[in-house]
Write a structure and sequence with these properties.
This protein has 207 residues and is mainly alpha-helical. The protein has 8 helices and no strands. 84% of the residues lie in helices and 0% in strands.
């Protein structure tokens, strides 16, 4: 009981520390905006989505149980939505919602699983997070090629840049997928080693 209370106190202290750091960062950001006469509510309204998402994301990373995972995943989703709104409002590229949704789900869900699992040593969640994030990125690239390079959504500067970047992303993603599937996984190498060890111990089959 005493160990659990001490662990809970340490997690609470880390949570309070992160809240303080994020509040300081948010305050400095707004002070900088006031000094240069920029109203963040006009040009940076997605920050009101990004900052709460980041707070929820990092607070979730402090907890090792399901509570932390239940905070990290929504925090990642909210942050990704805010970043997409920031990009779209900056470059007037709202038509990209036709394929950018894949970065939210399953993309950000996979990234959240990966980060939380990596931080707390949950290798099954690390593997699941990588696969889920890869699916999200694959959907983003695939639908992006369809809507941008085949159909053609808009003819803005950001759209032209996206049309040029998507084929490169497709090639890179394809190479990564091929390499991952060609190389044996750690689990496969372990199972192969166990099979060889058992064969060596048991000896050759009787004729």
């Amino acid at each position: 009981m005493g160990g659990w209370q001490q662990g809970g106190n340490r997690e609470g202290e880390r949570g309070a520390l992160w809240v303080g750091v994020l509040l300081i960062a948010a305050g400095c950001l707004f002070l900088a905006g006031q000094q240069v006469n920029i109203r963040l509510g006009d040009v940076g309204w997605p920050l009101f989505i990004i900052v709460p998402g980041l707070i929820l994301f990092f607070l979730g990373l402090l907890f090792r149980d399901e509570t932390g995972l239940g905070m990290t995943i929504p925090g990642g989703i909210i942050t990704t939505i805010g970043l997409l709104f920031l990009y779209q409002s900056t470059y007037d590229a709202y038509a990209s919602w036709a394929y950018a949704w894949a970065l939210i789900a399953p993309g950000s869900v996979g990234v959240s699983l990966f980060v939380w699992g990596l931080l707390h040593g949950k290798l099954d969640l690390v593997d699941a997070g990588l696969r889920t994030a890869a699916v999200g990125l694959g959907l983003f690239v695939g639908f992006g090629l369809l809507f941008e390079n085949v159909i053609g959504l808009e003819n803005t500067g950001s759209t032209k840049a996206m049309r040029a970047a998507l084929p490169i992303l497709a090639v890179i993603l394809g190479v990564i997928i091929v390499v991952i599937n060609i190389l044996p996984t750690p689990r496969g190498r372990q199972e192969q080693g166990e099979t060889q060890s058992q064969t060596w111990i048991q000896g050759p089959p009787n004729a």
